[in-house]
Design goal:
190 residues, mainly alpha, globular, Double Clp-N motif, 59% helix
């Protein structure tokens, strides 16, 4: 599938690997793909994320992603659903961190040395790449570009999509920023 990626989309994927390496993550996640997209310049996707104000609010996006990591990857909807049945996630996080240290639920492993520099993609990150292909095919685009990756990040349920939505970057908003009103005629690829 990688041969169908544009130069910018390839740079985004390799940039995600770099983000994972820099943070000492064991694998490449959807979050790394988003952060790499926010690094890109001069593309249709970078124009869209700038138009939506994400580049100006990058620190806020990163903070929201960090908070979700602290919650063990639970989305806000997950947290609210648990609160609805009397489970206070904030209290649980505080207790776990009190016993095991800050970031215990985030899966932070510190600066552990790895023999292999290879970082596999998580199932969620693979889903984003697959969804970007489906979106490109649904739009009848020949190649997968950064714009398809950002749309996939908003379309796949999870923490990254929640954080993007909290910052005004829903699928519909990104699609409008990318294609104007003419983009709404295309259905989301399943």
């Amino acid at each position: 599938m990688f041969e169908r990626f544009t130069k910018g989309a390839r740079a985004t994927v390799t940039g995600a690997v770099t983000h994972a390496e820099r943070t000492g993550a064991d694998s490449v996640t959807e979050e790394h793909l988003l952060l790499s997209l926010l690094d890109q310049e001069g593309s249709r996707a970078s124009f869209a994320v700038t138009a939506l104000g994400l580049t100006d609010r990058r620190a806020s996006v990163e903070a929201a992603l960090g908070e979700a990591r602290r919650r063990g990857g639970l989305t806000r909807a997950d947290t609210e659903a648990l609160a609805g049945i009397g489970i206070d996630v904030t209290e649980i996080v505080a207790r776990v961190e009190g016993a095991h240290g800050e970031g215990a639920l985030a899966g932070d492993r510190g600066n552990r040395r790895r023999r292999s520099r290879h970082r596999p993609f998580t199932g969620g990150a693979k889903s984003i790449l697959e969804k970007s292909l489906r979106i490109a095919l649904g739009r009848r685009d020949r190649f997968i570009g950064e714009e398809h990756l950002v749309l996939a990040l908003t379309a796949c349920p999870g923490v990254v999509a929640d954080v993007l939505a909290e910052h005004g970057a829903t699928y519909a908003a990104v699609e409008r920023a990318l294609y104007g009103d003419g983009g709404e005629g295309h259905a989301r690829a399943s």
